[in-house]
Amino acid sequence: MLNSSLKAAALIFLSVASVNPALAQVDIGAGYQYGGALGAKYSLVQGEHTVYASLGLIGAAMGYQFVFSNNNKHAIGIAVGSEVITSEKGFAAFTYNYYSQGVSASGWVLGGSVGARREDKASMFASLDEVHTKTLVGIHVGYRF
Predict the structure, then answer these.
(1) Which residues, in sequence order, are bridge partners of residue 76?
(2) pTM for this model (two decimals)
(3) Rounded distance, CA 20 to CA 34, Å?
(4) DSSP 102
(5) Where is the signal peptide (predicted)?
(6) Residues β-bridged to residue 68
(7) Angle CA(63)–CA(65)–CA(70) in degrees, nearest 5?
């Protein structure tokens, strides 16, 4: 299921990137949206819609966000990805972001994620071939350039 979600997100990302003229943004931050502990996020902003892909030290993610406020500072969306510490088999989450200067401007980005993550059950020396689904609750902080 997660594999098909990643493919769908990639297709949406590529279609929006190739059809619509969009504003490209780069963020550096930490949290699930940034691929885990520390990562970079490349976003395409088109009006109220944002699609992004990120690569971090311990994972990667893709997502979509919809800006729902008149001042362009609040957005909700979805994120899917994987990171090697707590979601080796992937995660899917609903997201909220607050953009301190607006979605199209440089500034701090703060937010949270709620969803599900799938991780391998492993001993110290080997995988036990068990996968557990657990609740994902995360915060993220970054800076948009």
Answers:
(1) 66, 96
(2) 0.76
(3) 24
(4) -
(5) 1-24
(6) none
(7) 165
Provide the residue type at 143 as one letter. Answer: Y
Rg (CA), the chain: 15
**CA angle 96–48–135, rounded 5-degree value:** 20
Per-residue tokens: 28: 């550096």
DSSP reduced 3-state for 1? coil
Q: Please report, in tens digits, the pLDDT of each residue of the chain (145 residues total).
A: 555 555 555 555 555 555 556 689 999 999 989 987 899 999 999 989 999 999 999 889 999 999 999 899 999 999 999 887 666 677 899 999 999 999 989 999 999 999 998 876 665 565 566 777 888 899 999 999 9
Token pair for residue 61? 């993610």
Instruction: Report how many helices (DSSP H) and strands (DSSP E) the chain contains, helices first.
Output: 1, 8
Strand 23-31, strand 49-56: pairing: unpaired
Residue 131 token pair: 């996968």
